[in-house]
Amino acid sequence: MSDLIPPQSELVIDPARTAVINVDMQRCFVENTPLAAPDGPEVLRRINRLVGACRAAGALVVHTRGWMRPDRTNVGAVMDRLVPPFIVALYTAGTDTAELHPDLDVDERDIVLDKPRYGAFHATELELVLRQRGIDTVIITGIATSICCETTAREAAVRDFHVLFADDATGTQDMAGVDAATLHRATCASLSMVFARIVSTDEVIRTVTDEAAALLAR
């Protein structure tokens, strides 16, 4: 459990009512580009452990991709003003850097969701998919902690989903003179106050594994 948050009540996860929203584990955010988190490959390895355990227990896994059209018609005014074109190009459809990282654990049962904004709920069918499956809990993993992961967590919370935010299965990069570790810690602290419960990979794996075993024993 992260040291950011005081001890809480026992974590309970019903895999059948849970989805992992794995945010933007694309090549450009994992390694070898200006957008990559310093610990991107390690975050990816933790995510693979977490999604594997959650999937095996019966949870849904959703992998999102920041996905801009080559003609830039879905870039939008804010991104167009603030983000340099060479950065947007890294997560534009048709480029190798926009694809999910080849080492990411993606199963045929998973959903791959393309999104035009930082949050996974805006202008997508994510909420429809989750509601139709009776899902009320989401686990957030991915990159970057302080942008797409945080935005998705807040979007989920205001839609009354229970939000679990995986401290060690999310990562970010240095931004505007603030180092990645400080940004990550500040984001988790802020989310923990009113939006999400901060959890660790091991805590999630242990909980869903125990719940799956208990269901089999009934």
TrEMBL record:
Residue intervals of the Isochorismatase-like domain: 18-201
InterPro entries (alphabetical): Isochorismatase-like_dom, Isochorismatase-like_hydrls, Isochorismatase-like_sf
GO molecular function: hydrolase activity
Pfam families membership: Isochorismatase
UniProt xrefs under CDD domains: cysteine_hydrolases (cd00431)
The name this protein goes by in its record: Ureidoacrylate peracid hydrolase
Species per Swiss-Prot/TrEMBL record: Actinomycetospora succinea
Key words of the record: Hydrolase
SUPFAM superfamilies xref list: Isochorismatase-like hydrolases (SSF52499)
